[in-house]
Amino acid sequence: METIGFVGLGRMGKPMASNLSRKGFRLVVNDINRAAVADMEKLQCRGAETAAQVAQEAPVVVTMLPNSAVVSEIVGGKDGLLAHVKPGGLIMDMSTVSPETTDALAKAAAARGVGFVDAPVGRLAEHADRGESLFMVGGTDADFARVKPLLEAMGTTIHHCGPVGSGTRMKLVNNFLAVGLCEMNAEALALSQRFGLALEKTLDVLYGTTATNGQLKLNWPNKVLKGDTSPGFTIDLAHKDLSLIVDAANSAKVPMPMAAAAREAFSMARASGFGGQDFSAMVDALCTMAGIEKPRFKG
């Protein structure tokens, strides 16, 4: 079995790498957080000092990084993965980045005889913990076949969306709805609080109509409505994704006024100090700004 490299051991990357290790893959890992690397070494992974070292040791390297700038530097920078991975190797980026970033890195990889796959992740951090992630994959049939066993070890649902770049673009479509619905849920529950409606009864009604959605029904009852705003997916990251969505839409000349409005709502939450909290905490931000009690299950 070939060695797999993994760069980026944050809230999503670490459980994914852990699942790969537990399912028998031999890993060499790197992250700026040395504690995360040390945790992976306890799972019999080999820690690397730099991303370049990962590329030197592993023909297939997975990246899970926070934004386009970091991905561009780690993958395509002067001392990045592409500068060290051998021809015939493959890089799979699972980060959420701009389409332009994916396209540029895929072109640079092809020029070096290296495969490139974009496979951003759907679902939440707790799904990653359980190995139940969803992947939106862009790449050639051959490259997809090469990474499919890795994806199967990290998740339960895999969609090959088309050629390289398709996964990134699909993720932006998905996150527009996911993050946009978060803002709508927050406004609806804040309004219910202002009206003096019981939270439990409000949810009973919403769950029974076409107003319901996965965030409100699956995520929020286990997060913000229980008072847990520890980050699975932060308001800062949601704002970053909304910015990617609005910018990509502008480039494609597709008007997205709701996405733009949602981004500014997340901007207000960040300015009010909520950026590091789970994106379900948008309802807390709105209630704080409105001076009303935050919605919480009683008892």
Overall number of strands:
9
Shape: globular
Fraction of residues in helix: 40-55%
Low-pLDDT runs: none
Radius of gyration: 20 Å
- Distance from first to last alpha carbon: 52 Å
Reported for the largest beta sheet, the result is: 6 strands, parallel
Amount of beta strand: 5-15%
Averaged pLDDT, please? 96
Please report the number of helical segments: 13
Give the helix/strand class: alpha/beta
N-to-C SSE series?
Answer: EHEHEHEHEHEEHEHEHHHHHH
What spatial order of strands do you see in the largest sheet? Answer: 3-2-1-4-5-6
Polypeptide structure, described:
There is one protein chain. The chain is an alpha/beta fold and 299 residues long. Helices cover 51% and strands 13% of the residues. It has 13 helices and nine strands. The chain has helices spanning 13-22, 34-41, 51-57, 68-76, 99-111, 125-129, 141-154, 166-194, 199-207, 214-219, 235-251, 257-271, 282-290, and strands at residues 4-7, 27-30, 46-47, 60-63, 90-93, 115-118, 121-122, 133-138, 155-162. Strand 4 (60-63), helix 4 and strand 5 form a beta-alpha-beta unit. The chain is globular, with a radius of gyration of 20 Å. The protein starts with a strand and ends in a 9-residue tail after the last helix.
